[in-house]
Automatic annotation (TrEMBL):
BP GO annotations: L-tryptophan biosynthetic process
Keywords, sorted A to Z: Amino-acid biosynthesis, Aromatic amino acid biosynthesis, Isomerase, Tryptophan biosynthesis
SUPFAM superfamilies named in the record: Ribulose-phoshate binding barrel (SSF51366)
Protein name: N-(5'-phosphoribosyl)anthranilate isomerase
InterPro entries per record: Aldolase_TIM, PRAI_dom, RibuloseP-bd_barrel, TrpF_fam
Entry EC no(s): 5.3.1.24
Family in the record: Belongs to the TrpF family.
UniProt enzyme class: isomerase
Length: 210
């Protein structure tokens, strides 16, 4: 049996975080990117983290934020893992000296293996859909055939995933984890507890068959 982990991203409310935990999600994502409809303030993030039970990984998503601003967030919010979702170089990511994952937006012409190898300090890479001018959260899937069978880092698959298509995505890509935001929402930034539960159940069910 292969365990595929799940992350529910774009959490803006404690009740949504607790619904994700109750469903069995391994991680939640908090977006510190003001232009996102799923952005949270430091105060919102503090309230969410204060209400979480133990053994849930908390991930902070940043998009080309200056290092001193990220450090200010980290001083106030005890995040477990950073997720860089912009054009950050490896040196930018490494400078924080914190565990991180790097999001890469996949295009047909990309050498995905080379992109992954450019971030040797990353704990994993998150592969998302490329949409010009949009750093993520597009709700669109990319061609999973573009993901090489062997990469130097664990893969977190994102981009347009739902309870309906995640079994096929996992079967084809065999990622370490999957990441969902819009696919489990009632509206942008507000999760649908039933959709979250269905998503995590689908991830676990297909993992048990692998």
């Amino acid at each position: 049996m292969s365990v595929v982990r799940s992350k529910i991203c774009g959490i803006t409310r404690l009740e949504d975080a607790l619904a994700a935990v109750a469903a069995g999600a391994d991680a939640i994502g908090l977006v510190f990117y003001a232009r996102s409809p799923r952005a949270v303030s430091v105060q919102q993030a503090q309230a969410i983290l204060a209400g979480l039970p133990p053994f849930v990984t908390t991930v902070g998503l940043f998009v080309d934020m200056p290092q001193h601003e990220i450090e200010a967030v980290l001083a106030a919010v005890p995040l477990d893992l950073l997720q860089f979702h912009g054009n950050e170089r490896a040196a930018d990511c490494d400078a924080l000296a914190r565990p991180y994952i790097k999001a890469l937006r996949v295009r047909a012409e990309d050498d995905v293996a080379a992109l992954v190898d450019a971030y040797p300090g990353a704990r994993a890479v998150l592969l998302d859909t490329y949409v010009d001018g949009v750093p993520g959260g597009t709700g669109q899937a990319f061609d999973w055939a573009l993901v090489p069978a062997v990469l130097s880092k664990p893969v977190i698959l994102a981009g347009g995933l739902t309870a309906d298509n995640v079994p096929a995505a996992i079967t084809q890509v065999r990622p370490y984890a999957v990441d969902v935001s819009g696919g489990v929402e009632a509206s942008k930034g507000i999760k649908d507890a039933a959709k979250v539960k269905d998503f995590v159940r689908a991830v676990r069910a297909v993992g048990e068959l692998m």
